[in-house]
Amino acid sequence: MDYILAFVIGGIICVLSQILMDTTKLMPGRVMVILVCTGVILGAVGIYEPFMKFAGAGAFVPLTGFGYNLWKGIKDAVNEDGFLGLFRGGFKMAAVGTSAALIFSYFASLIFSPKMPKN
């Protein structure tokens, strides 16, 4: 049941994002920024953490989860280091996910040997 719930919640977030792109003139990059900022704001208000506990990966995987993760890292770093935590916290929380994405994509490129399309 956890997988179904994650699929449905993540799908709803993606559908809302697609509706936003289809009904407005916003470019995908701006919609991505809106999603990240929404995660930060909902995390700061205290709504996103209970939502993540309910929805699991359906709330953690989309960009709103990334925004929440950045906010949480900054909040924890500010509590530890004061003002300097504003600059350090987001990098600390996002470093593992970003590093993993880079490492796994590098290994995938070695295995599958991608080629650039010719124009």
From TrEMBL:
<feature type="transmembrane region" description="Helical">
    <location>
        <begin position="31"/>
        <end position="47"/>
    </location>
</feature>
<keyword id="KW-0472">Membrane</keyword>
<protein>
    <submittedName>
        <fullName>Stage V sporulation protein AE</fullName>
    </submittedName>
</protein>
<dbReference type="Pfam" id="PF03862">
    <property type="entry name" value="SpoVAC_SpoVAEB"/>
</dbReference>
<feature type="transmembrane region" description="Helical">
    <location>
        <begin position="91"/>
        <end position="112"/>
    </location>
</feature>
<keyword id="KW-0812">Transmembrane</keyword>
<dbReference type="InterPro" id="IPR005562">
    <property type="entry name" value="SpoVA"/>
</dbReference>
<dbReference type="InterPro" id="IPR014204">
    <property type="entry name" value="Spore_V_AE"/>
</dbReference>
<keyword id="KW-1133">Transmembrane helix</keyword>
